């Protein structure tokens, strides 16, 4: 794991000890292991962002975008990223990757191995 993934390691270790269920869930009490409500997640993440000094408006959904971008930068194929995010349409996934710096795209294209084909391919002699 890199980037944000390293920050999640302690949580992932804690989560592994809870009942099987969603990644982000209630960690204690009678509803332990059950999913947070969307409103509770947004509230907690905004509280943490404020405490961390984040001045811009923060939405938990931005973590999905960041996750998709990290996977793309690590060279994970788009179809795998699509499955990870649960998108039925590949076009939806590509929207998440619009944050990739154009310089990264140019570097990726230039570093590709040139396709090779035989000299006689497609020729009728």
Give a concise summary:
52% of the residues lie in helices and 0% in strands. It is mainly α.
Write up what this structure looks like.
By secondary structure, this protein is an all-alpha fold. The chain is built from six helices and no strands. It starts with a helix and ends in a 14-residue tail after the last helix.
List the helices and strands and how they pair.
Elements: H1 4-16, H2 38-51, H3 61-73, H4 78-85, H5 90-96, H6 102-111
Question: Descriptors for this entry?
Answer:
125 residues; mainly alpha; 6 helices
The main sheet comes to: none
Mean pLDDT over all positions: 77
Order of helices and strands: HHHHHH
Helix content: 40-55%
Q: Kindly, what is the distance between the CA atoms of the first and last residues, rounded to a whole number of angstroms?
A: 54 Å
Rg, alpha carbons: 21 Å
């Amino acid at each position: 794991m890199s980037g944000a993934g390293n920050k999640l390691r302690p949580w992932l270790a804690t989560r592994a000890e809870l009942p099987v269920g969603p990644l982000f869930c209630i960690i204690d009490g009678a509803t332990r292991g059950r999913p947070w409500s969307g409103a509770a997640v947004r509230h907690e993440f905004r509280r943490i962002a404020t405490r961390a000094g984040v001045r811009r408006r923060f939405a938990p959904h931005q973590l999905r975008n960041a996750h998709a971008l990290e996977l793309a930068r690590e060279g994970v194929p788009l179809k795998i990223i699509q499955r990870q995010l649960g998108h039925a349409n590949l076009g939806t996934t590509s929207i998440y990757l619009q944050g990739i710096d154009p310089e990264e795209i140019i570097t990726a294209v230039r570093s590709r191995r040139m396709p090779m084909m035989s000299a006689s391919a497609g020729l009728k002699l």
